[in-house]
Amino acid sequence: MKQLTKAELIDLVKRVLDEVDRLKATVSQVHSELDHLKQPPATSLKSSLSPSRDQKANPPRRAAANGVARGPACQPAAERQQQNSNRQSLIRHVPLPCG
Predict the structure, then answer these.
(1) Side-chain half-sphere exposure of 29, counting CA atoms within 13 A
(2) Most buried in the list 7, 39, 80, 99, measured by CB within 10 Å?
(3) DSSP 8-class letter at 4
(4) What is the per-residue pLDDT across 4-13, written as a single tens digit (0 to 9) for each?
């Protein structure tokens, strides 16, 4: 700093002040966006949105027709093993090339 002339120091201070002003504007913009995000979402009750635009609750899960859940975890072990062996036999069968 001691090597800078008075004019260079003044120029440096002006550039620093410009940067401070730019950063203040950025912070102000971020604060206004944050305030906007803190607002509760608009619903048809509080604005001119149509009811179809309201957020819907998750629909209840439907049970199977016979009341029994299906899936790999609910299958008996022997049945799962049979399905796996069928898959393996399909994988092992590779046709030989012609020619």
Answers:
(1) 6
(2) 80
(3) S
(4) 899 999 999 9
Helix (H) or strand (E) holding 78: helix 77-92
In angstroms, the CA 80 to CA 73 distance is 9
What's the whole-number mean pLDDT along residues 36-54? Answer: 74
CA gap 24, 30 in Å, rounded: 10
Amino acid at 8: E
Which residue has 């305030």 as its token pair?
35
The domain segmentation of the chain, as residue ranges, is: 1-38
**HEC-encoded secondary structure of 24-76:** HHHHHHHHHHHHHHHCCCCCCCCCCCCHHHCCCCCCCCCCCCCCCCCCHHHCC
